[in-house]
Design brief:
This protein is an all-alpha fold. The protein contains five helices and no strands. Helix 4 crosses helix 5. This is Homeobox domain-containing protein.
Length: 101
């Protein structure tokens, strides 16, 4: 038996490629592991809202739990935060409110 005969062959008669891919591990690529200090640097900073900002958000929520996009844009500009942070904050507030009802 030659060395070619010992390689796995699929039913179609072609060599089985899956056995080759099993031998190639992700570690064989030249990827370096991410260290914990690099992970810390990539972590986004948490936004700390002032009491006044929280009161404004609560007032907005009580007036309309589903404010229009334009209103959220204006509040985000006033607060100096991205609009998606306001959307997420209101979303979580709606979720929490549902659990208490």
């Amino acid at each position: 038996m030659s060395s070619l005969d010992s390689s796995p062959v699929s039913s179609s008669g072609s060599p089985d490629i899956s056995s080759r891919s099993e031998r190639a591990s992700p570690e064989s690529k030249h990827e370096q592991p991410v260290t914990s200090s690099e992970q810390i640097n990539k972590k986004k900073a948490r936004i700390n809202y002032t009491n006044e900002q929280i009161q404004t958000l609560l007032k907005l929520f009580h007036e309309n739990p589903y404010p229009e996009s334009e209103m959220m844009e204006n509040i985000a500009k006033d607060f100096g935060v991205p609009e998606n942070k306001i959307k997420v904050r209101l979303f979580y507030h709606r979720c929490c409110l549902k659990h208490f009802i």
